[in-house]
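Per your request, structure below.
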C-alpha cells in the first residue's frame, strides 16, 4: 500500500489542493457553499432512492420485504425532489434537527450535572457544556440563517485543515518514495 501511495503522491496532493480550494470557498462564500451542499444532497437522495427502488423491484422475487425497500427508495426520491424544489426547506429542516439535538443534549447534561453534584467535583464543567449546548440550539432556532452559515463555515475550516494535511502528506510520500527507491 505504501508503494501505491508513493507512486500516486500527486493525486494525494491534488485532493488536498481541491479540499483547500473548497475550504476557502466555504469560508469566503458560505452562502454559495451551503446552496451547493444542499443541491448535492438533493442529487444524492434522488439517485440513491432511484437505485434502491429499482433494486427492490428487480429483486422482489423471493424477498419478503421488498416493499419496505421500495418505500425507502421512493422516500429518498421524494426527499431529492423536495430538496430541488424547496432547498430552503431542506436547510431549515436540517437546522431544526441540529438545534433540537443540541437543546436535548444540553438539558441532559444539566440534569446529569445536578444529579452528580454530590458525587463528583467539577460538575460546573458539565453545567457549562449543557448551557452552551442549549444556547447553541436556541440561537440556531432563533436565527436559522446564521446557524446555516456557521455550519458552512465549519465545513470550510474542516476542508481547509484536511486539505493542508493532505498536501503535506502527499509531499511526504514523494520524499519517502524517493528515499526508498534510492536505497
Amino acid at each position: 500500500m505504501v508503494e501505491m501511495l508513493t507512486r500516486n503522491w500527486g493525486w494525494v496532493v491534488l485532493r488536498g489542493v481541491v479540499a483547500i480550494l473548497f475550504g476557502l470557498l466555504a469560508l469566503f462564500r458560505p452562502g454559495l457553499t451551503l446552496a451547493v451542499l444542499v443541491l448535492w444532497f438533493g442529487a444524492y437522495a434522488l439517485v440513491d432512492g432511484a437505485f434502491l427502488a429499482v433494486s427492490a423491484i428487480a429483486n422482489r422475487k423471493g424477498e419478503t420485504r421488498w416493499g419496505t425497500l421500495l418505500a425507502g427508495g421512493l422516500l429518498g426520491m421524494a426527499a431529492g425532489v423536495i430538496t430541488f424544489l424547496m432547498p430552503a426547506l431542506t436547510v431549515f429542516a436540517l437546522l431544526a434537527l441540529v438545534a433540537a439535538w443540541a437543546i436535548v443534549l444540553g438539558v441532559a447534561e444539566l440534569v446529569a450535572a445536578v444529579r452528580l453534584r454530590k458525587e463528583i467535583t467539577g460538575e460546573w464543567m458539565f453545567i457549562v457544556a449543557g448551557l452552551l449546548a442549549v444556547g447553541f440550539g436556541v440561537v440556531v432556532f432563533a436565527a436559522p440563517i446564521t446557524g446555516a452559515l456557521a455550519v458552512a463555515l465549519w465545513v470550510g475550516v474542516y476542508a481547509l485543515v484536511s486539505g493542508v494535511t493532505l498536501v503535506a502528506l502527499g509531499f511526504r510520500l514523494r520524499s519517502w518514495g524517493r528515499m526508498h527507491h534510492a536505497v
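Helices lie at 2-7, 9-28, 30-58, 66-85, 87-116, 123-142, 144-182.

Regards,
D.
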